[in-house]
Amino acid sequence: MMKKPLFKLSRVKGSPVSDSELLSDLKRVANILNSKTVPQKKYGELGVYDYSTLIRRFGSWNKTLSTAGLGRSNEIDIPDIRLFENLFNLWQHYGRQPRRSELAKTPSLISQSPYNRRFSSWTKALEAFVDYANSSGLGSPKACMSDNNTGSAKAGRDPSLRLRWKVLQRDHFTCCNCGASPAIKMGVELHVDHIIPWSKGGQTDMDNLQTLCAKCNLGKSNLK
Ligand SMILES: [Zn+2]
Q: Quick check: helix, strand or coil at residue 211?
C-alpha cells in the first residue's frame, strides 16, 4: 500500500534549501508514485518545492532526475502557460525573438520537445505565444487590495505576463533611461518598473510602467 505524505514543510522565508533536501523530496515523490521517474507536472502536485527551483539548481528536469538516481521523464503535459512563461522569459532575456537553439540553454527551463509536441513546430509555438501575449486580458489579475479613496479596486503590484509583454514591446526591449538592450549588449537585464511606485499609489498599467535595465532600476530605487 502506498504511503501518503503526512505533512508539507512550511519553510521559513529566505532560508536556504540544500541540494540533498531537494533531491530527497523528489525521491519521496517517486516513492509515492511508486515509479522510477517523476514527471514535472506530478512533482508540481506532490512536491514541497517549486519545480523551477530544482531545475535552476541542477540544470534541467532530466538532470535533476539523474542526480537523484531516477530515470528520465518525457514531459507530455506541461501547461501552456508554463510554455508561454518560458518563451516570455527568453524574449525578455535576449531582448528579441528567441531562437530554437536557445531552448537548450539557461535561462530556458523547458527544452524543445514539449513545444514541438504541443505546437508541432517552433514557428507555430512562437505564433501561439504572440497571439496569447497580445490578446486582451488587459491589465493584471484581479486586484486583491483596495486601498485608494475611490473604493475602486487597484490592480496588484505585479503586472501580468501580457502586461509586461506589452510594456517591453512598446519600449522595444530597451531601457527607457539609458537605451541599453540585451539585443545589443548581451547580459543587459530588463525590468518592468513602476514609474510612480506602487507603494505610493502608482497603478499597474501601461501608463505607469516602463522598461528599465537592472542598473537604472537599482539606481532609481537608491534615490527613493
Ligand atoms: Zn538603463
A: strand
Q: Note the residue count of the chain.
A: 224
Ligand 1 centroid to residue 220 C-alpha, Å: 10
Kindly give the distance from the C-alpha atom of residue 25 to the centroid of ligand 1, in angstroms, as a whole number.
41
Q: Pick from 35-44, 96-105, 137-146 the range whose average pLDDT is largest.
A: 96-105
pLDDT in tens, 172-210: 999 999 999 999 999 999 999 999 999 999 999 999 999
Ligand 1 centroid distance, CA of 219 (Å): 9
Cα of 50 vs centre of ligand 1, distance in Å, is 31
Long-range contacts of 165-172 (CB under 8 A, 24+ apart): 165/88, 165/91, 165/133, 165/134, 166/133, 166/134, 166/206, 167/192, 167/206, 167/209, 167/210, 167/211, 168/91, 168/92, 168/192, 168/211, 170/206, 171/210, 171/211
Q: What is the mean pLDDT of the chain?
A: 85
